[in-house]
Amino acid sequence: MFNLSREVTCPHCSAINRWEGNDPQPEDELTCLRCRRFITSHEDYIHSLVKQEVSRTMQRYAYRSVSRDLSLLKLALMDAPRPSVETLSY
Ligand SMILES: [Zn+2]
């Protein structure tokens, strides 16, 4: 999931910083509270968040096996209760 805490680790000193305020503008900059160096703009921050989420989602589905999923589905259907004779009457 998305980084809801909006925390960003400073690439220069590894301090944890976070975006403040409800709605940072794209051009707003995050500056490290410890070393005072520029970390990222809000636009770049959002862009990297989306890239990470897309990458994570793609990895989740990249190694799925269709045949394994089908065999699991068959097993699930075999365990499903079968209709009784009465409900099969036409
Ligand atoms: Zn720093």
Report on the architecture of this protein.
The chain is of the alpha+beta class. The chain has one domain (7-78). The protein has two helices and four strands, in the order ββββαα. It has helices at 42-62, 66-79, and strands at 7-9, 16-18, 29-31, 38-41. It has a two-stranded antiparallel ribbon with strand order 1-2. Strand 1 and strand 2 (16-18) form a beta hairpin. The longest helix has 21 residues, at 42-62. The radius of gyration is 25 Å and the shape is elongated. The N and C termini lie far apart (50 Å). The mean pLDDT is 85. The structure holds zinc ion. Zinc ion binds next to loops. The site of zinc ion has 8 residues, from loops.
